[in-house]
Amino acid sequence: MEDVPMPDGSILVTIVTLQMPFGKYKGTLLKNLPVSYLEWFARKGFPKNKLGQTLQCLLEIKMNGLEGLLQQVQHQVNATKS
């Protein structure tokens, strides 16, 4: 039986800690970006880098109503800082 790679949870930490580095929402935490902005990227094209992959993941999370997952990650990140 082949080993199935585990998903990389660090992308979730990035979503709750990284600020948008450019554009209309520069300085906004990625988790707080509106779906309409993420949908705009989906139509126009996500950046071809890790940020683009992260934004695509965030769009999927928001479109599937999984923001609670981000709240849990945020709580863990905050607890680690304390």
Automatic annotation (TrEMBL):
The cross-references to InterPro entries, in alphabetical order and at most eight, read: QSregVF_b
Q: What is this protein called?
A: DUF3820 family protein
